[in-house]
Amino acid sequence: MSSKNSAFNKLPPFIWGEATSDNSEDGFDQDEYLTHTRYPRFICRVREDRHTATGHDMEAHLVSAVGLMPDGFKELYVCQTHGVAMSDFVWLDPKPEPETLRKACDYAIINRLLRDDAMGLLGGDDKD
What we know:
Strand content: 25-35%
Helix content: 25-40%
């Protein structure tokens, strides 16, 4: 098990990416994807959730929760502060307790905000 952990620990904790899609005009899926390489390791879909966004700035305390999707089997993370939802989790470790998952997702949101802010400063593709 330690060789698997050391291999993951050589990677960045958060790997963000887009997926290609045959169902869109530009060939890309509208959602973003996250690979989280620290415990609990997972891959998930990340999407904007404007219905829950409260419009706080980056320094605002995260208001987030982990629950179950309507089917009762799949986890759903929602960050109300920044209007982001994570779903369709694929577990690379055993499924964690909800609070452990919430904390990992909170750190991912912070990382995403910092990345988007840096891209804006560099004149890159800013999502806001």
